[in-house]
What does this fold into?
Amino acid sequence: MSVRLDAIDRKILAELQRDAGQSLDEIARKVGSSKTPVWNRVKKMREGGIIKQTTVLLDAEALGLEACFFVLIRTSEHEAEWQEKFLHALRSRPEVLEAHRLAGDIDYILKVQVSNARAYDVFYQALIQEVRIHNVTALLSMEEIKSTTALPLAG
It folds into this structure.
């Protein structure tokens, strides 16, 4: 289903990205509408797949997950069986926050959030036991400069 977005839809989405815990009344007031039309628009955007889920953002450091590694993976394996095993390994590990298949010299990049370097090593050892990987480079993030889940909604 294709959903066409107008300016009000984009304002609603911007408000939901800023704080999805707001009431419909608050959102309606901020976008210049009333509660029922806002509810109908949100429902339409959920059904149309624009809004995938509503969630809560947690503070990793407050939870003791102070080390963020970006893991660059090169593989010489490209068969479907290997790929299925690799994807299963990534999806089954909660410390893997993101995984992307890339064009270029690096095949995959992972964002891995753990408590410290030792916890990363435990993750790494488990991963290479489960799937064969040609080369792994881990980069420790020294400082998070920008992080957002908000998509740009200019339109």
